[in-house]
Amino acid sequence: MLSEDDRRLLHILSQDCRLTAEDLAVQTGLTADYIKKKIKQWEDDKVIAKYGVLINYDQLEEDRVTALIDVKVLPQRGNGYDKIAQRFQKFSEIKSVYLMSGDFDLCLIIEGHNMHEIAQFVSDKLSPLDVIQSTSTRFILRRYKQDGIEFHGEEERPQRLMITP
Amino acid sequence: MKQYLSPLALNLKPSGIRKFFDLAATVEGVISLGVGEPDFATPWVMTEAAIFSLEQGQTMYTSNAGLVELRRELSKYMAKHQGLNYNADQEILITVGASEAIDLAMRALIVPGDGVLIPDPSFVAYAACAEISGAEVHYVTTSAEHDFRLQVEDLQMAYTPNCKILVLSYPNNPTGAVMTREELLPIARFASENDLIIISDEIYSDLNYGGEHTPFATLPYMWNRTLHVSGFSKAYAMTGWRIGYVAGHPDLIQAMLKIHQYTIMCAPIMAQIAALEGLKSGETAKQEMVMEYDRRRRIMVHGLREMGLTCFEPLGAFYVFPDITATGLNSEEFAEQLLKEEKVAVVPGTAFGPAGEGHVRCSYAYSTQQLQEALTRMARFVKKRIS
To answer: Which three-class secondary structure state does DSSP give residue A38?
Structure first.
């Protein structure tokens, strides 16, 4: 179980991983030493798996396409879905692999430069795999919100008064 | 036309905040730490519930006391989260912000000439509402020496036998002070001994960073003599909806209801519906905001202390109240010069009562980037004045 302090620390880090241990100490009331030790431990235990940047590619003149590929597979005796998922995750083109409830079994997230590249990957690499029964590919057309950040449609809010009681 | 005005309206002092607001409006590019309201938008679940209700044509008056569903949910909420027991039918009144509740309480209780004890410094409306009702205001000085907690000795000093009401407001605006159960107990004893009615404004009770908030009405024998005032403005970021409530003994609430039904009729229905949704499903959003305020609070206290100002640790609301006397300036001079030189707006402590002298109120209901920039500018300003 996470302590309330550690939960706060992780929350702040997840919002901004560039903060130094000293910044974090000010913002949480914990000591910088404790924070350094804790972060090291989380890194070692792979609790902190990566420090990332959320990029809004729509703002750049950059060709980039993301597809969600739903996959129905034949689970294997003894291994269930794990073995198959491990096989998928080896492809560098596949950014995420999830086991899902519902009509399909696995959901893969693939990034490429254009639709053609992704279609090629699905038809050449994925579909021929004997464990796959069927796939359904959906392309992301526009990102409105990701990881809690709104990319579009944030309307101007009226200004607050400068001074109120 | 002034000859037509009542002496009451004529003599009512304009708020010290108003004066400073007018001044700040003349300066461009100001970073303001002067706002007493959240910078978050109301959680969308609540706004969405109100929009849906409007689409359904729910645009009528509600019962004078407020939607019965809201009062019932509030009754359950207070019992579960605060240990407060109020009957939804007779003991809860939904008001247009906590401000209306304070006004109603004063009007229902005060006979001209009654004394009202008000901690100093505190929110600007208490003394004004008391005066509008014809009361005599008795300020009870609080000080940084006791982290702006009300001391029974000071209460004793301010008390005269005509005093009938004591206003409490913890967590406090402008100081951010909170009071624990142990610290409130002697105040409760004093109230019993002197037969005082308490108007306890607990609008900031959810913004408490030091532990459990103690509602005053939960103290021994205090339920009968306490009007528990609160609202949705601060914790649910709903200032513009104007939705608050007051709970207390049915004799008091029913008297306040009479005044409310003639002057206001009822709180706006869409705000009541949004508030109801907040009680049902706004808890997570509220907790996230509280966590963010706590983080900003620490940044502010650290920054102010780093620049050499004495700053007690505020454990509630979203204000810090640093001591600025080390700069050789008084509150108003500090606020005015800071505004002109560095374009940062803070509110002079004296806007909240004479005991606010030597302090300024800095709100931290701003993004961390804005706070950092304001702190940088303030540090530059203070450095020139502290040797």
So the answer is: helix
- Best residue of B295, B320, B347 to probe chain A, by most A CBs closer than 10 Å: B295
Helix/strand number for chain B, H first, E second: 13, 12
pLDDT digits (tens, 9 = 90+) for B319-372: 999 999 999 999 999 999 999 999 999 999 999 999 999 999 999 999 999 999
**Gap between the Cα atoms of A24 and A117, Å rounded:** 43
Instruction: Tell me, yes or no, whether A65 and A131 share the same domain.
Output: yes
Domains and CATH numbers, chain B: 1-40+281-382 (3.90.1150.10), 42-280 (3.40.640.10)
Give the ipTM: 0.84
If contacts are CB pairs under 8 Å, which of residues 340-359 in chain B contact chain A? 345, 347, 351
Within 8 A by CB and 6+ apart from B315, the residues are B171, B176, B177, B178, B208, B209, B210
For position B384, what pLDDT does the model report?
96
Query: Would you say residue A1 has pLDDT above 90?
Result: no
CB B311 within 8 A of CB B322: yes
Within 8 A of A164 by CB-CB distance, chain B residues are 17, 34-37
Searching chain A, which residue's CA lies closest to the CA of residue B123? Answer: A165
Distance to chain B for A150, nearest Cα, Å = 14
